[in-house]
Amino acid sequence: MHLPLLGMGTWGMGGKYERDENNVTESIELLSYGFDMGFRLVDVAEIYGEGLTETILGKAMKGRKREDIFVISKVWKEHLRYDEVLRAAEGSLKRLNTPYIDLYLVHWPNPEIPLKETMSAMETLIEKGFVKEIGVSNFTVPLMEEASSYLSHAKLFANEIEYNLAVRDAEREVILFCKKQGINVIAYRPLAKGSLLSGQNAILQSLSSKYKKTPAQVALNWIIGKGASAIPKAGSREHLKENIGVLGWHLSTEDVSLLDASRF
Ligand SMILES: NC(=O)c1ccc[n+]([C@@H]2O[C@H](COP(=O)([O-])OP(=O)(O)OC[C@H]3O[C@@H](n4cnc5c(N)ncnc54)[C@H](OP(=O)(O)O)[C@@H]3O)[C@@H](O)[C@H]2O)c1
Q1: Does residue 48 carry a catalytic annotation?
Q2: CB–CB of 78/108 below 8 Å?
Q3: Whose CA, among 26, 44, 216, 264, lies 20 to 30 Å from 190?
Q4: Residues lining ligand 1, CB < 6 A?
């Protein structure tokens, strides 16, 4: 499946770095609601909630056509030895209760473990049919080049990076490189964890009135207009509804330039 431009983040559902059972039912319902309303992309990782987030997603996907959903999961940086990568992926598949993951990412680089070993395991996962595509997250250009050099059949499909109106370091090198190499960019923290919206930014407010969209929709539309996918995490049905309203329209070139030139 083509990588959708908009998806659902899941950080905090079932816990953050530690398992937390408190919001399990509500999180399953929220993700199900998101799928019902048309979200097709969802981002998890084995580290989220110590695996509970993947279990939650597995329950939300139950009974749905698997091909309609694009699942991203990630192997944690402490599990990058060959055998550990295979074991981590098998654990994720079990918790997600699915035969395959659409895109499997190396969550963070780890200089202690040879990248060659990790990438070789990532390719094995494709051969076994456990994952459709492989990629990286939080990788610099030299690290992406190094990772690519160890791949014999596959190609890096994506780099998931922090990118939003307030955090734009990736524009200097990473995004340009990805564009040139045909590597998808996935923007995490696309709303800067909500901080973009807390300060009543004047430009976001004025574009919000002009387009009759909310400031969150303007901020997310700016990202997808650049060809990157965005995976905001919504904690309510209202926010999910608002976020899907980011599709089907675009900011004018002049307004994109205005946002580009602004400080957030
Ligand atoms: N690869 C990596 O290393 C990495 C790192 C960080 C995150 N991620 C992924 O990226 C996802 C998104 O990042 P994030 O969760 O850190 O930050 P985020 O999506 O930028 O921000 C989440 C915050 O935005 C608020 N929000 C969402 N939709 C909104 C709307 N329409 N209007 C107003 N506020 C809205 C949420 O509030 P409510 O809860 O009230 O809706 C929440 O407080 C994560 O969930 C995770 O899947 C990946």
Answers
A1: yes
A2: no
A3: 26
A4: 9-11, 43, 107, 137-138, 160, 188-194, 197, 216, 231-236, 239, 242-243
Fold of the domain spanning 7-191 = TIM Barrel (3.20.20)
CA–CA distances in Å: residue 203 to residues 41, 106, 196, 215: 29, 36, 11, 9
Pocket test for ligand 1, best of 53, 71, 188 (most atoms within 8 A of CB): 188
If you measure from the C-alpha of residue 69 to the centroid of ligand 1, how many angstroms do you get, rounded to a whole number? 19
Residue-range domain boundaries for the chain: 7-191
Residue of 17, 33, 48, 188 marked active site: 48
For ligand 1, atom 27, the nearest C-alpha belongs to 234
Q: What is the pLDDT of residues 202-233, one digit of tens each?
A: 999 999 999 999 999 999 999 999 999 999 99
Taking the CA of residue 243 as reference, the ligand 1 atom at the shortest distance is: 31
Q: What single letter denotes the amino acid at residue 172?
A: R
Spell out where the chain has E strands. Answer: 7-8, 41-43, 70-75, 101-106, 131-137, 156-162, 184-188, 229-230
What is the whole-number distance in angstroms between the Cα of residue 172 and the centre of ligand 1? 23
**pLDDT at position 199 over 90:** no
Element (DSSP H or E) covering residue 217: helix 215-225
Cα–Cα distance measured from residue 193 to residue 117, given in angstroms and rounded to the nearest whole number: 34
Largest CA distance in the chain: 54
Q: Whose Cα sits closest to atom 44 in ligand 1?
A: 9
pTM above 0.85, yes or no: yes
Instruction: Using alpha carbons, select from 226, 224, 246, 223 the residue that is nearest to residue 234.
Output: 246
